[in-house]
Specification:
325 residues; alpha/beta; Peroxisomal Thiolase, Chain A, domain 1; 5-stranded mixed β-sheet; 4-stranded mixed β-sheet; globular; binds acetyl coenzyme *A
Length: 325
């Protein structure tokens, strides 16, 4: 059976570093509070780079590793909640800049679970035989939708992009199981109204809408622990494997305490979980792509290793992919 195999990954984060001490100069917070409550020490913040700029750089790196030419790409999917525009999509902008003239391109919105949703979508196009080479991107400039006066959210996030190329192949090294979930009933826990819309016929407007992230932190915290634990369980069941078969678990990089609790509830050693949130904060749809690229470049994964990627986020959404690298 045809599957998607990872033939290249890449990532890019903007050069500007914002430390916890920098934030303590902006809002009433401290390095001690942020480090102890989240594990985050610093994050990268765009100094004018757009989401498509970050996505393009990450994609170039993934393409280089893959050895493919841009013309060989059939499809580009970009997961993002901070696109440059309502239209065109970030994926179309990246397609143009890469010169990937043969690819279809679209964006996908599943908040911090976006990279997982995009990987699973790519796998469907490959396994049905419709496409051979798919570029999956997770890219965000979350700094654009943060309320920089709200200490309860602005300390948590960062900007960046991760990319992956999945290519059709037979045999080992592919997605062995996947799970996607959504719970729209919990949508109010994590929101960001996009624009003030005025209906030209009725004059109705939501002009008071605040285009910043609002979060009920403790509710999201509880949801995230349950979501990670459930998704790991379900994806292992789907693949007919147990935790002992898994070398690493790569969770969405939101908060070290969430991951510690999830490790406890899933009876998995904390050391199995890969973390880089100390350096980047929560980069939403980009976090899993950035971390996977880092793991591969550091030689932590060798072909045949099994890894679970697991995400959660606005929607609320969650999901996991069990991958043989
Ligand atoms: N610095 C100092 N004090 C702060 C800060 C800050 N940055 N933020 C909040 N506080 C204060 C609060 O005002 C409160 O003070 P009070 O007791 O005087 O009222 C106190 O700290 C405790 O606040 P809590 O909200 O109860 O703190 P908590 O321990 O729950 O930690 C946190 C907050 C880190 C946000 C936690 O709830 C969390 O991690 N939630 C999940 C967040 C998350 O993962 N979001 C993203 C997931 S989805 C996605 O990625 C888009």
């Amino acid at each position: 059976m045809r599957h998607g195999v990872i033939i290249g990954t890449g990532s890019y984060t903007p050069p500007h570093v914002m430390t916890n001490d920098d934030l303590a100069g902006m809002v009433d917070t401290s390095d001690e509070w942020i480090s102890s409550r989240t594990g985050i020490k610093e994050r990268r913040i765009s100094a004018g780079e757009s989401t498509s700029d970050l996505a393009y750089e990450a994609s170039l790196r993934a393409l280089k590793v893959s050895g493919l030419s841009p013309e060989e790409l059939d499809l580009i999917i970009c997961a993002t909640i901070t696109p440059d525009y309502f239209m065109p999509s970030v994926a179309c902008t990246v397609q143009d800049r890469l010169g990937a003239g043969n690819a279809a391109a679209f964006d996908l919105s599943a908040a911090c679970t976006g990279f997982i949703y995009a990987m699973v979508t790519a796998e469907q196009f490959i396994s049905t035989g419709m496409y051979n080479n798919v570029l999956v991107i997770g890219a965000e400039t979350i700094s654009r939708i943060l309320d920089w006066d709200d200490r309860s959210t602005c300390v948590l996030f960062g900007d960046g992009a991760g990319a992956m190329i999945l290519s059709a192949a037979e045999g080992p090294g592919h997605i062995l199981g996947s799970v996607l979930t959504s719970d729209g009933g919990k949508q109010d826990y994590l929101t960001c109204p996009a624009v003030s819309l005025v209906n030209p016929y009725t004059g109705d407007s939501n002009a008071k809408c605040d285009p910043h992230i609002k979060m009920q932190g403790q509710e999201v915290f509880k949801y995230a622990i349950r979501a990670i634990t459930d998704c790991i369980d379900r994806v292992l069941n789907k693949a007919g494997l147990s935790l002992q078969d898994i070398k690493y678990i790569l969770p969405h990089q939101a908060n070290k305490r969430i991951i510690e609790q999830a490790a406890k509830f899933s009876n998995s050693p904390f050391e199995k979980f890969y973390l880089n949130l100390e350096d980047y904060g929560n980069t939403s749809a980009a976090s899993i792509g950035i971390a996977l690229d880092e793991m591969i470049r550091e030689g932590l994964l060798i072909r045949g290793d099994k890894i679970i990627l697991v995400g959660f986020g606005g929607g609320l959404t969650s999901g996991a992919v069990l991958l043989e690298y």
